[in-house]
């Protein structure tokens, strides 16, 4: 295990009026992080684990998955600046699990909200689906296939955005941070959950109407804020370079999303 950086400090006792000779004791080795002389190492040997549990609620031990999910989604949206500027390196599987769960809930709740509206807009079609067993089965199949497929596409789109930001940052001279950029993309799926119908319901029930309105107002601004926080905090880019890297990442991400969306629609049509 890698040892925590230690510092040697000269310890001098306080001399009272009866002391006639000044004296010194040998230097004490103190941990520069916790300040204790008997520290066995505050810094983990695995740098990918450093800071993860402190920054990402989803990866903290204890608590329920439900509470950690919403804590992370809220941090990626309302606290996007602080969260993504200090996003630590770490393992990808937990971030992938978070992204898939967040997008499944986001897409599922959006579809559940849109179906009644579609039924009101197209009442004749809705009655046909309800009255025809074959059409009902077909509609259920579309739901069962379409929701996971759309959720997976959203996960891939967010991950591609992170990878594109890394490419843009490297183009500006920053050190590569590919895994951290992918974690950015995966955890940014929390935006979709928080700004969707289910997120609004959760915020309304747990934080009140004002907090729910504030989160919804962030929906258009949070991607840019989070990208800037990553590029400046993690990659250390100055303002101008971060802006250029963000533009590059946005262009690449949009092109990738369009191409992958076309492929997804073709796959669903042929299914």
Per the principal axes of the C-alpha atoms, what is the gross shape?
globular
Task: Provide the succession of SSEs.
Answer: EEHHHHHHHHHHHH
Strand content: under 5%
Count of distinct strands:
2
Share of helix, binned: 55-70%
The residue ranges in which pLDDT falls below 50 over 5 or more consecutive positions are 1-51
| Biggest sheet descriptor | 2 strands, antiparallel
> What separation lies between the terminal Cα atoms?
52 Å
Q: What class do helices, strands and sheet pairing give?
A: mainly alpha
Strand order of the largest sheet: 1-2
Number of helices: 12
Mean pLDDT: 80
Radius of gyration: 26 Å
Quick overview:
The protein is mainly α and 271 residues long.
Using brief descriptors, characterize the structure shown.
3% strand; two-stranded antiparallel ribbon; 271 residues; mainly alpha
Write the layout of secondary structure elements.
Layout: E1 6-9, E2 28-31, H1 52-55, H2 65-77, H3 80-85, H4 92-121, H5 123-131, H6 133-171, H7 178-187, H8 189-194, H9 197-206, H10 209-217, H11 222-234, H12 239-270
Folded structure, characterized:
The chain has a two-stranded antiparallel sheet. The longest helix has 39 residues, at 133-171. It has 12 helices and 2 strands; from the N terminus they run E-E-H-H-H-H-H-H-H-H-H-H-H-H. The protein has 271 residues and is mainly alpha-helical. Helix 4 (92-121) packs across helix 6, helix 5 packs across helix 6 and helix 9 (197-206) runs antiparallel to helix 10.
């Amino acid at each position: 295990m890698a040892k925590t950086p230690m510092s040697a400090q000269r310890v001098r006792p306080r001399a009272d009026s009866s002391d006639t000779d000044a004296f010194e004791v040998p230097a004490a080795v103190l941990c520069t992080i916790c300040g204790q002389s008997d520290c066995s190492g505050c810094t983990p040997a695995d740098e990918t684990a450093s800071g993860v549990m402190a920054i990402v609620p989803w990866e903290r031990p204890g608590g329920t998955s439900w509470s950690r999910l919403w804590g992370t989604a809220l941090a990626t949206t309302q606290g996007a600046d602080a969260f993504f500027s200090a996003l630590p390196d770490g393992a990808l599987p937990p971030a992938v699990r978070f992204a898939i769960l967040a997008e499944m809930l986001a897409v599922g709740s959006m579809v559940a909200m849109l179906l009644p509206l579609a039924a009101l807009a197209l009442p004749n079609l809705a009655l046909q689906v309800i009255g025809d067993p074959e059409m009902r089965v077909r509609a259920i199949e579309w739901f069962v296939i379409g929701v996971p497929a759309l959720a997976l596409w959203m996960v891939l789109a967010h991950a591609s955005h992170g990878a594109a930001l890394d490419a843009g940052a490297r183009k500006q001279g920053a050190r590569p941070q590919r895994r951290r950029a992918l974690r950015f993309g995966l955890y940014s799926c929390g935006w979709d959950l928080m700004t969707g119908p289910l997120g609004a319901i959760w915020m309304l029930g747990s934080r009140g109407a004002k907090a729910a309105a504030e989160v919804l107002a962030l929906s258009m601004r949070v991607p840019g804020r989070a990208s800037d926080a990553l590029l400046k905090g993690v990659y250390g880019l100055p303002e101008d370079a971060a802006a250029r890297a963000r533009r590059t990442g946005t262009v690449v991400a949009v092109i990738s999303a369009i191409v992958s969306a076309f492929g997804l629609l073709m796959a669903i049509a042929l299914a």
